[in-house]
Amino acid sequence: MSFLDQIWLIPLFPLFSAAVMLLVGRKLDPQGELSESALAPELATAKPAGQPPHTASHRSFWGRTIISLMCPGMVLMSFLFSVGAVIQLTAKPEKVHQVVLYTWLAGLPFHTIVGAITDFSADFGFLLDPLSAVMILVVTCVGFLIHVYSIGYMGHEGGYYRFFGYMNLFVFFMLMLVLANNYLLLFVGWEGVGLCSYLLIGFYFHKKSASNAANKAFIVNRIGDAGFILGMLLMFSVFGTARFLDVNQVLHSGRFAAETTGFGVLSLMALLLFVGATGKSAQFPLYVWLPDAMEGPTPVSALIHAATMVTAGVYMVARSSALFQLVPHTSTIVAAIGAFTAILAASIALVQNDIKRVLAYSTVSQLGYMFMACGVGAYWAAIFHLYTHAFFKALLFLGAGSVIHALGGEQDMRKMGGLKEKIPVTHWTMFIASLAISGIPGFAGFFSKDEILWQTYSSPQGSIVLYVVGLITAAMTAFYMWRLMAMTFYGPSRVAEEAAAHVHESPAVMAVPLTVLAAGSVLAGWIGLPKVWSVFPDLFRVFERWLEPVLAAGSSGAAEAASHMASTEWFLMCLSVAVALCGIWLARYLYVLRPAAADSVARWAGGLYEVLVHKWYVDEIYDAVFVEGAAKGGGSLLAAVDNKVIDGGVNGAGLLARLGSVISIWWDTWIVDGSVRLLAFLVKTSSYPMRILQTGYVQFYALVFVLGVLVFLAYYMMR
Amino acid sequence: MLHPITAVHYLALSAALLLIGTVGVLVRRNIVIILMSIELILNGVNINLIAFSKYFHNVIGQIFAIFVITVAVAEAAVGLGILIALFRNRKTVVADEVNLLKW
């Protein structure tokens, strides 16, 4: 069986179960919607507490079993197909396989900016190459584990079928995004995952904050998407195509020179695409939606807002690496935004008290790392970090979910502590993930983060400033992660009395995915060892070699080889590890050994601490400038214009119309109706002599008949 | 001494039947009688046809007469059917009381 030709089936599996869930899921899970107590607490308490009818719970059990088997099962099918397809891809010498099902949009020929005539067209086509291979494996593998985890996590929640329906729909769109063979189809998946993100953030839609967060995510993403659309249109009008392979061919053909000196059309195109990426991947200035997105259920945060969807921007930039390689100025902007976001988000994460928000800002920060790598031309390092990050960040979120589950919904880390002994599996898996994200040698995060830091330093497009920012961020990362660990698992318990009694380890269905992801967080990095480590370069740098055919040459190659100094790399590696260890030690010191010290540091930092707690007041500034200033101020201005000018015009037009109608009424009544009535009157009058002949007596007619015959007879006889 | 029956006798009988029938149709008010009068007219015509058929030694007249009888039967059946329907609805068989079909 050729998996390669059937790659279009990979997204279809989750689409199938999503369709089943969303169309008939309600039947499968009859008491399925969010419980009444959640929707209207006062009603639930008024009702007598009785058992639900036995039949309903029985049906519900089987319905839920079907949902629990089918939804993760379909994602597992996608995963198996992906593995099959990727194995077959490795056997192909050119490492590219394209399946075009049909032309989805076909348009008329037009002239591109450079004068060539081309057809506007977009395929419904799928492209499997090393880059999308990595992505589908990550999406389906992590997606499957999170689905399994959700069976346990969402087991007691209402809306079970709806949750899984949206999750599967998300996996479908995400696979469309990474398997598309052109930008337009990628954009379809891009918008689709945005929709699913909106639906899942607003999963608890009866909560005002959740529906607000969903709206915020959707609206902020629209801003980025506007940039993406403009970039795509510009690409169409310049290259005349949106197919990845064709675009790359045009860019490699040398028809467009690298814009090293000025800011030309390619730079603008790349910048617009990057605006799209900042929206989806939560980069400054559009990162504000991601922390709020934590209103959704925790598995959603793990799958969509950590492991997969938010990395779509990185994927898209890497996919456009041939373009970004030609525009060093835009690439510099990308690196600068990435670095700025990384340190900004990390600084906010230092002082947050909500366990999921710390992880959310951490995600933003790690995405900043990835863009930093893209900006300096180390696309493979960005994808490498994307791939390792998917494991350990999904694990961190699921672990956080497990903690929240154990504490019956508590998210505030100030009310945790001392949980290490009570939930050991969660603790140890999160321990591994925290080591991985902090960059301790041997764990996945170390390899990818160290590669990015090394590239920011050594790449021709890199600089010492980027490196220092990255290093400080690494220290902050280690600090806030171990602050999280310390506040959650170590030290004295601050858990509320009531919750403490119910603390329990999560069931196996949740613990097993945690364990698998923990294994991934350890092992995932070993396919991309640092250059200086590699005794067998071909064996341990598989990842870079694997991605080489897709990504632009970037820093790997001659330029880097010249600047490559083993001693420098060793030194920088040791430096980053040392910095990470410092961060870990500091967190341990402040939050475990000397808990009082943390407060005194906060008091000492004073103003800075306040600014960090308020997230640099970015939300407040946006609120003042865009919501109050542009939207409401503009709204009142528009209202004035509306009242005076537009309403005046409408009222004037109404008056004119009424005048016209009066004339029209007169004309209609007297001239039009009059002429019709006159005609009718004339006909009626003139028909009177004829009417009196119609007596209705049949014998009168017969008499006339006979008389007529006699008249004719007489006439013929007389003649 | 009896005179032989000639064509003139037949024609006279035929004309008499036609005249009686016509007058009957025009002056009688009972629709049953009107229908009977129509039968008289048709039979007058039949006698006329057969008389000429014999006179000219041509069989076409007789064929025509059979056609007329056939049609007369059909006409009587339809006419009586209409009459019964009329009686059921209006409780009358008087032609003067059925004058809806006027202006």
Helix content of chain A: over 70%
Helical content of chain B stands at: over 70%
| Gyration radius from CA atoms of chain B, angstroms | 17 Å
CATH architecture assignment name of the domain at 30-92 in chain B: Orthogonal Bundle
Q: List the total number of helices of chain B.
A: 3
Report the count of strand segments of chain A. Answer: 2
Low-confidence stretches of chain B: none
Overall pLDDT metric of chain A: 85
**Total helical segments of chain A:** 31
Q: What is the H-and-E element order of chain B?
A: HHH
Cα separation of the termini of chain B? 61 Å
CATH C-level name of the domain at 30-92 in chain B: Mainly Alpha
- CATH topology of the domain at 30-92 in chain B, by name, is Helix Hairpins
| Helix and strand composition category of chain A | mainly alpha
Strand residue percentage of chain B: under 5%
Q: Name the beta content range of chain A.
A: under 5%
Reported for the largest beta sheet of chain A, the result is:
2 strands, antiparallel
Number of strand segments of chain B: 0
User: Which chains make the largest contact?
Assistant: A-B, 10 and 14 residues
How would you portray this structure in words?
The complex is a heterodimer of chains A (719) and B (103). With 719 residues, chain A is mainly alpha-helical. Chain A is built from 31 helices and two strands. A two-stranded antiparallel sheet of chain A has the order 1-2. In chain A, α5 (130-153) packs parallel to α17 and α18 packs parallel to α19. The longest helix of chain A has 69 residues, at 618-686. Chain B starts with 6 loop residues before the first helix and ends in a 13-residue tail after the last helix. Chain B has a domain at 30-92: Helix Hairpins. Chain B has helices spanning 7-27, 31-56, 60-90.
